[in-house]
Amino acid sequence: MTLEHALEGKEYIIQSINTDDEELNAFLFSLGCYAGEPITVVSRLKGGCVVSIKDGRYNIDNQLAAAIQI
């Protein structure tokens, strides 16, 4: 399942991130978004969602959410 289909308020564990963009992978890693880490969808927005990773909250678009396997 991808993060795009995750339920709000439920904690999931990231299984993998499927993107061919190395720069994007490095950016996500710097946020703490990598395999094995917990992630929670805090709320849904038009075109994306707000997620909680470690101690931060980030707004990600649907395209990126679809690349994150949980």
TrEMBL record:
Native source species: Anaerotignum lactatifermentans
UniProt entry tagged with the keyword DNA repair: no
Keyword Repeat: no
Single Gene Ontology MF annotation: transition metal ion binding
Keywords assigned: Iron
SMART domains in UniProt: FeoA
Domain Ferrous iron transporter FeoA-like: 1-70
InterPro entries from the UniProt entry: Fe-transptr_FeoA-like, FeoA_core_dom, Transcriptional_repressor_C
Stated name of the protein: Ferrous iron transport protein A
